Amino acid sequence: MNSQLPSPNSQGARAAVLLAAAVVLHLGLSVDVRAQGRGAQAPAGATPRAAAPFDPTGYWVAIISEDWRWRMITPAKGDFPSIPMSREGQRVAEAWDPAKDTAAGEQCRAYGAPGLMRGPTRLHITWQDDNTLKLESDYGTQTRLFRFGGTSSAQGAKTWQGVSTAEWIMGGGGRGRGAARRGSMKSVTTQLRPGYLRKNGVPYSASTVFIEYWDLHIEANGDQYIVDTNIVEDPVYLQAPWVTAIHFKKEPNGSKWDPSPCDAKF
Amino acid sequence: MNGIVLTRIVMLVGVLLGSGPAFAQIELSGSYAPILYEDYIERGPGSDLGDFTGMPLNDEARAKALLYTSNLPSTMERQCLAQAPWVQMYRPRGISIWRDVDEVGNVIAWKLGGDYLRGTVTIWMDGRPEPSPNALSSAEGFTTGKWEGDTLTARTTHMKTAWIRRGNGIPGSDRSTITAHITRHGDLLTIVTIQEDPIYLTEPHVVSRVWQLNPRANANQYVEENCNTANEIPRLQDTGIVPHYLPGKNPEADFMIRTYNLPREAAMGYAEALYPEYRKTIKGVYTPPASCGRYCCGWIERQGLPGAAPGLTCNDGGLGDLGPPRRDAK
Questions:
Q1: Do the domain assignments include residue A125?
Q2: What pTM was computed for the model?
Q3: Range of the domain at A177
Q4: Interface pTM (ipTM) of the complex?
Q5: Do A239 and B323 touch (CB under 8 A)?
Q6: pLDDT of residue A1
Q7: If you count Cβ atoms within 10 Å of the first and of the last residue's Cβ in chain B, which end, N or C, has fewer?
Q8: Are A181 and A152 within one domain?
């Protein structure tokens, strides 16, 4: 048997060594790619903060380049195209009364998470701790927490910002050690207090599930945009999931951060 | 077999083993239906005339847009001005995406086709350089792409002069560049476009839209060249007349102001109106209209059903049912 093994100096031996090296090289690359592949986990023990495939922190401003008339200002009662409302949703929206909302202490109805994200707002995103991302808005002065590694609980009071769980979705990408990590954040928000998708009373119910995919795009000139592709699922007031994408541009600092309280009318 | 040959074989094996997903990080091929839950009026029945909200226009663009009449695209020379690369961001139709591969399966280009595209957008993935700035512009432009994680980022140059947005004459020049980010999350396809135009825009114009994978989306809808160059108005035939409003004479220039009480700078596309701080400048100035008079009822299926609030006028612009299946469909 030994006689069939190539001697260390033979061409066959050299080929075997080179082939082994090639395979090792491939495996090394593959491991690196897989580490960045879909569903890949961060290195053992890494916190969600350390494992983040992009940096979502900083100040971000909504660019109201779409649906301007429904996002920047309060449209007329009954002016709600683009939303797949159910008949019950439409009935409720047609009864919108901002004065009544204010009197009832419900002036933040349009500032719950599904409505807030399409509002004219700045966002301040920070890590509250290694497992929790904090999103603040100056529009309505709201705070939402994204908890990684948790599961959504049906316990507790429903709030405007609800309970958000988050996970990184690691993307494919660069080869080799040190290559940039890429990926998205997916969040699911439940436990929402009933509110409005639009300022003029388009409702969402307490059964709403708000799903978001967050992506960062960095331009050649250094501009950064976070895009929030989001799905509002409400079996009560929507005929079908309401799907939109919202974009925010990164700002250099918080100099334009200007908190304002909820306002039911304007 | 000598050592040199063996070494080359082994190196080739190594290279082949090391190749793989670098060219295609995620499958984009398929047929996608538009989700018209943003800018529905523009993408469905069509923009209001004089509605430049959400745009960062300069004075030249505003002046040119206000010369526009809806007869203008009926003239032979201007019928294709609406057909620009990435125009699907403003249209109600679907997108078909496929790929061209070389003999060993590497993706050479991603292709985007759609009913309103004049010429397929080809996103070259083979590393070819952009043409000279003096190279010919084409209807579909020249586009290169690269993967950034699971996002395909494309850059389009060398396009022709074309309208931005839909149906009200907002101009874009042939010096525009468009960066597009295409990201797929499950069956949802998000496309973000960032258009820069040194001639007509004061800052990049950013739009983000969503489509949904749907094998039925584009059946019998895909038309490679749907831009018919024919004179649609007989009285203009061979006259050389270009329909237009003279400067300062457009009767629709204040349509948004008188219909929706919008401030002029918002209706006329000043960039300052794109940002949250603008809203605070109009507090106490802007008041909503007393009631909605156009395209009101929440979604178009409601058209004709009894029970809409007084003063509502339901109007789907003749497009019919464009949305996903309804839960309460009859």
A1: yes
A2: 0.86
A3: 48-251
A4: 0.86
A5: yes
A6: 36
A7: C
A8: yes
